[in-house]
Design a protein that fits this description.
Radius of gyration: 22 Å
Helix content: over 70%
Strand content: under 5%
Main location: membrane
Subcellular location: Cell inner membrane
Membrane topology: Multi-pass membrane protein
Number of strands: 0
Number of helices: 5
InterPro entries: P_starv_induced_PsiE (IPR009315), P_starv_induced_PsiE-like (IPR020948)
Keywords: Cell membrane, Membrane, Transmembrane, Transmembrane helix
Length: 144
């Protein structure tokens, strides 16, 4: 029984390290892919007639992805708000890209989606301020 517990702990420790390495590898791939996409966008903007609003919004999306990766590396967790911000900017970019072919229904649905996502962000922020989660540091301070 004593050996089984030690074996389980050893296996659990190795699996946790493997998962951490997989996460770091995935974050590295996301970071490298984002850098490549941003360099490609900058190269395309330099070689074109000018910079459009959609180019700037796309660059903003890339920066949000960098912020997500950085936040995950710093805190080890990803706030739900970052993907929501990316979703709002993506919808706005889609509206601008399709500016000539948007129907009234598409405009209304897109605007409604942005409003709903913004309300979701506000609700999440309110919940975090009103009901903060207990972090590992706070738990260890309470125990000690």
């Amino acid at each position: 029984m004593k050996y089984e517990s030690a074996l389980q702990k050893a296996i659990k420790g190795r699996l946790e390290r493997a998962m951490e390495l997989a996460e770091l590898l995935g974050l590295g791939i996301i970071g490298i892919g984002t850098v490549a996409a941003m360099v490609h966008l900058i190269w395309r903007m330099v070689n074109s007639d000018g910079v459009t609003l959609t180019d700037l919004l796309l660059m903003f999306l890339y920066l949000e992805v960098f912020a997500m990766v950085g936040q995950y590396l710093k805190a080890g967790q990803l706030p739900v708000r970052f993907p929501l911000y990316i979703a709002m900017v993506s919808i706005a970019r889609d509206l601008i890209l399709r500016s000539g072919s948007n129907t009234e229904l598409h405009l209304l649905a897109s605007a409604g989606a942005i409003v709903l996502i913004a309300l979701g962000v506000l609700l999440i922020r309110y919940g975090q301020a009103r009901y903060p989660s207990i972090t590992a540091e706070a738990k260890s301070e309470e125990a000690g």
